[in-house]
From TrEMBL:
<feature type="transmembrane region" description="Helical">
    <location>
        <begin position="78"/>
        <end position="101"/>
    </location>
</feature>
<keyword id="KW-0813">Transport</keyword>
<keyword id="KW-1133">Transmembrane helix</keyword>
<comment type="function">
    <text>Part of the twin-arginine translocation (Tat) system that transports large folded proteins containing a characteristic twin-arginine motif in their signal peptide across membranes. Together with TatB, TatC is part of a receptor directly interacting with Tat signal peptides.</text>
</comment>
<feature type="transmembrane region" description="Helical">
    <location>
        <begin position="221"/>
        <end position="241"/>
    </location>
</feature>
<keyword id="KW-0811">Translocation</keyword>
<keyword id="KW-0472">Membrane</keyword>
<feature type="transmembrane region" description="Helical">
    <location>
        <begin position="197"/>
        <end position="215"/>
    </location>
</feature>
<dbReference type="InterPro" id="IPR002033">
    <property type="entry name" value="TatC"/>
</dbReference>
<feature type="transmembrane region" description="Helical">
    <location>
        <begin position="162"/>
        <end position="185"/>
    </location>
</feature>
<keyword id="KW-0812">Transmembrane</keyword>
<comment type="subunit">
    <text>The Tat system comprises two distinct complexes: a TatABC complex, containing multiple copies of TatA, TatB and TatC subunits, and a separate TatA complex, containing only TatA subunits. Substrates initially bind to the TatABC complex, which probably triggers association of the separate TatA complex to form the active translocon.</text>
</comment>
<protein>
    <recommendedName>
        <fullName>Sec-independent protein translocase protein TatC</fullName>
    </recommendedName>
</protein>
<comment type="similarity">
    <text>Belongs to the TatC family.</text>
</comment>
<dbReference type="Pfam" id="PF00902">
    <property type="entry name" value="TatC"/>
</dbReference>
<keyword id="KW-1003">Cell membrane</keyword>
<feature type="transmembrane region" description="Helical">
    <location>
        <begin position="113"/>
        <end position="135"/>
    </location>
</feature>
Length: 264
């Protein structure tokens, strides 16, 4: 029998070798995927209600959805169920992300994990909800360009793909402030650095909205781009408060060390 390996000491700062980081990342991804799968079961059950809500804008304009293959209705139900599962379990998979980052945080910083998870879930769902509110108006406006001599016969796959992609994209976009505050809490980026880039951030927010926004009008772009920009500045405010707290704590610690050194 070979010699037994000595027990691996746990790093007090939560650091681990690259191999363990990769294994932990794989574990968190698998747990997140399992949670989304469970949420997708709920999405499958709720699909008939969601289907009615998603098709309502098409019915309002007198249009029809066409299923072009035998299995397309089944495929679309799975697609919608998975997207709904992502939203239902947003707190779970965002939590897995923070648990992966947690070993690099101090004990005090780990106490903020629950707040990050709940805030991230609220932002993700809020972004999706805003897109959901915009989409019926988008369908109405975009189909209004159809000539009077033509009819709106929409392919179900393309319509549902358009609907779900816009919702997920805006949900992810609303997580930007969460990422900013997270980087600040990790000590990677200070608030002043974010503030210096505010012009680029606002420009990118409106450029993103102009591309991702399904509506061609200016007002919807202003609402969505303004919402993302507002969240950006709120995140900067939180980062400034965090920097002020950490600077005071560091100054107090340095003063204590200087006092101890002087006494020696």
């Amino acid at each position: 029998m070979g010699a037994e390996r000595p027990p691996r000491k746990k790093d007090p700062e939560g650091r681990m070798p690259l191999g363990e980081h990769l294994r932990e990342l794989r574990r968190r991804i698998m747990l997140a995927a399992a949670g989304i799968l469970v949420g997708a079961i709920g999405g499958w059950i709720l699909y008939p209600y969601l289907f009615d809500q998603m098709v309502a804008p098409v019915e309002a304009i007198g249009g029809e959805l066409n299923f072009t293959t035998v299995g397309q209705a089944f495929d679309l139900r799975i697609q919608v169920a998975i997207v709904l599962g992502i939203f239902i379990t947003s707190a779970w998979w965002i939590g897995q992300l923070w648990l992966f980052v947690a070993p690099g945080l101090t004990r005090t910083e780990k106490g903020y994990a629950l707040g990050f998870v709940l805030t991230g879930a609220a932002l993700f769902i809020g972004g999706g909800a805003l897109a959901w509110w915009i989409l019926p108006h988008a369908v109405e406006i975009l189909t209004s360009f159809t000539p009077e001599v033509a009819q709106n016969f929409l392919t179900a796959r393309e319509y549902f793909s358009f609907f779900t992609k816009v919702i997920v994209v805006f949900g992810v976009a609303f997580l930007l402030p969460e990422a900013m505050v997270g980087l600040n809490f990790l000590g990677v980026v200070r608030a002043r650095t974010f503030l210096k880039a505010w012009r680029w951030a606002v420009l990118l927010a409106f450029a993103f909205t102009a591309i991702a926004n399904p509506l061609p009008d200016v007002w919807s772009m202003i609402i969505m781009g303004g919402s993302i920009s507002a969240l950006f500045f709120v995140a900067i405010g939180i980062c400034f408060l965090r920097d002020r707290y950490t600077d005071k704590r560091r100054a107090r610690r340095d003063a204590e060390l200087a006092s101890e050194a002087g006494n020696e």
